[in-house]
Amino acid sequence: MSTTRVSTNETVLLAEGLSKSFGDLRALDDVSLDLKAGQVRGFIGANGAGKTTTMRIVMGVLASDGGSISFHRRPITPDDRRRVGYMPEERGLYPKMKIADQVAFFGELAGMGRSDAKAATAELLEQLDLSHRAKDSVQDLSLGNQQRVQLAVCLVADPEVLILDEPFSGLDPIAVDVMSKALLDRAARGVTVLFSSHQLDLVERLCDSVTIISGGRVIADGTVPDLKAREEAPLRVRVEDAPDLTGELQGVAREVSNDGKDYLLKGADDRAVLSLVQQSGHLTHFAYDQPSIADIFREAIKPVAPEPARPAGEHDETGR
């Protein structure tokens, strides 16, 4: 899927230092998002990490306990939020209303004239492969088609920003492709897109940048290439007709493991490894593994082991 994107460094929507507590639960702790024109940003984290709470605060559905939200570098207003298309995880459609009437209705609610709303609706239903269901009620649609209608509702007023909470949940591959193309087309026209998803392969395929949140805090943030560059890529080596080389490889690499088929090496002297395996058997694979977004996510949320307790009376370098 290759749609040319016109992205810039212009910040459209900026959330800074958001905090939110529900009783004793600290749901958000100093969360910031910098959403730029024409960029697609993935917002990923485990269930309960704070993604939905952040989106609801950005949209004004929830009030934050601290922090700020700006739109084009000024405090966001209710009129600004009308320029943001929001797709909550819980769908908000009228089940007995016809699809075309419903999408046009939401366009009019956003301030469009009736004829413009109808024209935009027809275009969107064509793009989302729903034209043949235009006169059907939402309740007669599959979940996937209902989500397409929900996306059409988000897009009908031609928003400047899209904020989508799990838009691909439960969709079949064809529906995923249709909705993905619609989002990439908007990004190519300069629309800012933020979406959350547990489908990390999809996040990697669609997104320019990714924010990872865990326990209410942002633990990784950046462009996809930058995030991948932070992870040490292991050297994957496959050699046939050779004895177990683990012991010898440990002499030329910091860390050696075997996934049942290949040796995976970190901190390797690749020239020494190459020389060793070529002398030991038939080399069939020798390349550095590029970490995936899923790999980066797992590494980012991995708990840090606590430091071992010092014996009584032992001090650190400061003497404290």
From TrEMBL:
Top-rank taxon, per record: Bacteria
Matching Pfam families: ABC_tran
GO molecular function: ATP binding
Location of the protein in the cell: Cell membrane
Family matches, as InterPro entries: AAA+_ATPase, ABC_transporter-like_ATP-bd, ABC_transporter-like_CS, ABC_transporter_ATP-binding, P-loop_NTPase
Membrane topology (UniProt): Peripheral membrane protein
Main location: membrane
Gene3D superfamilies reported in the protein's UniProt record: P-loop containing nucleotide triphosphate hydrolases
Keywords: Antibiotic resistance, ATP-binding, Nucleotide-binding, Transport
Domain ABC transporter: 13-240
Nucleotide-binding keyword on record: yes
Family assignment from sequence similarity: Belongs to the ABC transporter superfamily.
Name of protein: ABC transporter ATP-binding protein
The organism of origin for this protein: Salininema proteolyticum
